[in-house]
Design a protein that fits this description.
It contains 8 helices and 5 strands. The chain is of the alpha+beta class. The strands form 2 sheets. Strands 3-4-5 form a 3-stranded antiparallel β-sheet. The protein has a two-stranded parallel ribbon with strand order 1-2. α3 links the parallel β1 and β2. α4 crosses α5. The longest helix has 17 residues. It is globular and about 60 Å long. The mean pLDDT is 86.
């Protein structure tokens, strides 16, 4: 349960550890899908390969399976979800599309996605080793909240905002979306 994880992290002051899927994990899934639907083409739209080994594991598992194609979405979390949903809609609207056409469309979607967030609590960044104790203390006292954006698959700290989180979020959304013509605004998640 996510609330239990956050509670435990706060209690212990450490972040949980994760691991990416191994090639054998992907092989089992690919083989099961292929056994159930031998004519199916499997498209794996992977979590950013800069942040996990899963995409590489998928490519290793795909070797020798000419029905499996894997693509790095360069995004995490809701950004990856948005790309997967848009790709599914494209496939539904273009059932005869080739893998190259689907991936070209998917790339065009990735170019129009902005994924950013402002952490409400920097304790998780500190516990995960991404923020020193001194930086954490200073940011906490000054109510500084960094904007983290996913760029090229990497999570990078950008502009820093000051104040209470409600105002910070409004400022972030206003500054990042106002006057932007290079991103697709028809679907925005906050």
């Amino acid at each position: 349960d996510p609330l239990e994880i956050y509670s435990r992290c706060n209690e212990l002051g450490v972040m949980p550890k994760t691991s990416g899927c191994a090639p054998a994990d992907f092989s089992r899934v690919y083989d099961r899908i292929h056994a159930e639907r031998p004519d199916a083409t499997i498209l794996h739209l992977a979590y950013s390969e800069v942040t996990t080994c899963s995409h590489q594991s998928s490519k290793i598992a795909a070797a020798g399976r000419d029905y499996v194609f894997s693509m790095d979405t360069r995004f995490v979390s809701v950004g990856q979800s948005l790309i997967v949903v848009e790709a599914a809609k494209y496939i539904e609207a273009h059932p005869d599309a080739t893998v190259d056409e689907i991936f070209a469309f998917t790339n065009s979607v990735m170019d129009r996605v902005l994924l950013g967030f402002v952490p409400t609590d920097l304790a998780f960044l500190q516990a995960g080793g991404r923020l020193s104790n001194m930086a954490f203390l200073g940011a906490h006292l000054l109510k500084i909240k960094p904007c983290i954006e996913v760029t090229g698959g990497k999570m990078l700290s950008g502009k820093k905002f000051r104040g209470v989180i409600d105002r910070v979020i409004i400022n972030y959304v206003t500054e990042r979306l106002q006057n932007r013509e290079d991103i697709d605004k028809h679907r925005i998640f906050i």
